[in-house]
Amino acid sequence: YQRRVHGAFFEVGMKVINHTEEVKIPKKISVVVSGRKVKVTGPRGSLTRDFSHSQCEMKMVNPRLLRVGMWFANKKQKAGVRSCASHVANMIKGVTGGYKYKMRFVYAHFPINVAVTNEGRTVEIRNFLGEKLPRIVHMPKGVIAARTENVKDEISLSGNDISNVSQTAAQVHQKILVKDKDIRKFLDGIYVSEKTTITA
What we know:
alpha+beta; four-stranded antiparallel sheet; three-stranded antiparallel sheet; 43% strand
């Protein structure tokens, strides 16, 4: 319908009464919803996430369908409903196939030396632009680092939680940012080259 404001007419759409998003749950995956806390269990383990910060309703319609909704949601709240549904879908994918981020070393002169220690829980970066000081990144719980055997100058980060895996990749990248130089010329660093799953 049209609404007149200060002599001008504006198109005003109808307010959405109930905005919902649905997440399909595959076989061999179980989802338990308690209030706004969601626990997803699959072949690779279980993940738990708390959505208490959101005002959306989460309900299991049946064992194979989760419905996320909100009453009288505005534009930002609708986006929040979609985000909650996407997080749950990522959790399902994580406990099914896992997440793996591959990172390549880029250097022009000084070769970047990376050592994975403490059974894949610590990454030590040395000789970045010839610097002597080592840079250390500790993996969060559930993320394992490993050197790629068949590819030179590459490491992989693996885990079930996409938030932890991607955050760790960002921390590794940010540990060796080039300072006080033209970053168009000095491209040395460790960059994400591929995002894939652990199992096909």
